[in-house]
Amino acid sequence: MTGTELKKWREDFGLTQKRLSQLLAVDKSTISAWEIGRRKIPPRSERALKYLIEHVEQTKALQELILDWDNRIEDALNAPQLKKYVASAETLPNMKNVDRILRELERILGRVNS
């Protein structure tokens, strides 16, 4: 990994040099020296960086997946065909209505997911 690549990655994920230095247990000036090419990133630090990058990217992908599902569920809950079942469940609360709501929600989510 080059210093330029490190800087781009760090900035893309919103990390400051200070925060990255804390995560890697190095001085902030070391991060700066790596990024401007004054010092080469040692193999041990490069392995730690690769692990950190993988972890951050996986975490970001998971957050995006959760947000996507939150949006899908919210859209499904606002679907007109589901609202009528919710309205009937509010007026006649019983398990049959709850089952209908859950089936309709599954159907909508299945269609959105396809």
% residues in beta strands = under 5%
**Uncertain residue ranges:** none
Instruction: Please identify the oligomeric state.
Output: single chain
CATH superfamily of the domain at 1-61: lambda repressor-like DNA-binding domains
- CATH class of the domain at 1-61 reads Mainly Alpha
Helix content: over 70%
Overall mean pLDDT: 81
CATH topology of the domain at 1-61: 434 Repressor (Amino-terminal Domain)
Order of helices and strands: HHHHHH
| Proper CATH architecture of the domain at 1-61 | Orthogonal Bundle
Largest sheet: none
The radius of gyration over CA amounts to 24 Å
Tally of individual helices: 6
How many strand segments? 0
Structural class: mainly alpha
Termini separation comes to 39 Å
The outline comes out as rod-shaped
Keywords:
single chain; 114 residues; mainly alpha; 434 Repressor (Amino-terminal Domain); 6 helices; 0% strand; rod-shaped
Ordered list of secondary-structure elements with their pairings:
Blueprint: H1 3-12, H2 17-24, H3 28-35, H4 43-77, H5 80-91, H6 95-113
Helix pairs in contact: 2-3, 4-6, 5-6
In short:
This protein is mostly helical and 114 residues long.
Structure characterization notes:
The protein is mainly α and 114 residues long. It has a domain at 1-61: 434 Repressor (Amino-terminal Domain). It is built from six helices and no strands. Helix 4 packs across helix 6. It is rod-shaped and about 70 Å long. The mean pLDDT is 81.
